[in-house]
């Protein structure tokens, strides 16, 4: 099999964990790899992924090889693989709305510092790198910047993996652009491998499948990385809250169960620098069962946020590569529902998994909308 060549927008904590993971798992040849959901997707293993280009705007990262840049401030992801390849040099990206004034005013170990380097021609860079896929790791709230890179992917003939809550794959107008360009896309807003969103989903599904009425579903998230710090700016937070609530709301919509007013809340709650890349989520579900008997559920989840993300991205990359080889274009329904909070089509957990299993075996299902 050929290598899957990827380009990265945003050399932050999520990419740090992904890049470390590519080295950590490079010699894993088991049928079941501990820590990885799928060892083999369409003939591709984690070791088949290669980083060929990276873009950032922070002075501490631009101009450095990615193997050094991932360990620069303000990154605080856990170091589990200190020895990594140098990789390509981080190039200066385009700022647009990707960098808030707030993050530039934060202490240097917690915020961003803008490089004075000249932005590169992204389309030309992607073409020269021969990237198959570009991954969007921009800060939450980067609407203009995400659209800029999505268009660059189309112009360069590169598939797009949108890991943030700017709605591209789930926007019919943007999806049509990828269909016209004969390119696949997965989005929007990456779920974690075992994070707050997937846990909320399965708890909501469990309640409904067991015949319970859900009066209230709360999910509060606290963390200490730059993602949580960036989301202290309320104007950048709206799409994130909507995306996280979509996961819960979708389970009502699929079953035709109305969502009661004020019955759900999911979103970032506050930023605690002490936690660094540790995210802590608190869940409270208030249910009613047989005879209207009350049932309360309280759960606490503590995870390493960026590694949790990388565990899903490493699969999404391979789904895109296989789809591209099969001639599937536009938003991938099953893989998007499995890996993203706001896919173009919400599915139940088991249905999304079944769709991914089919693609992993290079089979097409009824959810595949467009084939070239």
Proportion of strand residues? 15-25%
Ends distance: 22 Å
CATH topology value of the largest domain:
Rossmann fold
SSE-based structural type: alpha/beta
Kindly report the oligomeric state of this protein: single chain
CATH C-level class of the largest domain: Alpha Beta
CATH homology superfamily of the largest domain: NAD(P)-binding Rossmann-like Domain
**Could you give the order of the helices and strands?**
EHEHEHHEHEHEHEHHEEEHEHH
Output mean pLDDT: 96
Task: Compose a concise summary of this entry.
This protein has 372 residues and is of the alpha/beta class.
Topology (elements, then pairings):
Elements: E1 4-9, H1 13-24, E2 49-56, H2 66-69, E3 90-92, H3 101-105, H4 122-129, E4 133-136, H5 143-156, E5 159-162, H6 172-180, E6 184-186, H7 196-209, E7 213-223, H8 226-230, H9 238-255, E8 264-271, E9 278-288, E10 294-304, H10 305-326, E11 330-331, H11 333-339, H12 349-360
Parallel strand pairs: 1-2, 1-4, 2-3, 4-5, 5-6, 6-11, 7-8
Antiparallel strand pairs: 7-9, 9-10
Helix pairs in contact: 1-10, 4-5, 7-9, 11-12
How would you explain this protein's 3D organization?
The chain is an alpha/beta fold. It folds into 2 domains: 243 residues, NAD(P)-binding Rossmann-like Domain (Rossmann fold, 3-Layer(aba) Sandwich); 109 residues, 2-Layer Sandwich (Dihydrodipicolinate Reductase, domain 2), CATH 3.30.360. It has 12 helices and 11 strands. It has a 7-stranded parallel beta sheet with strand order 3-2-1-4-5-6-11, with helices on both faces. The protein has a 4-stranded mixed beta sheet with strand order 8-7-9-10. Strand 1, helix 1 and strand 2 form a beta-alpha-beta unit. The mean pLDDT is 96.
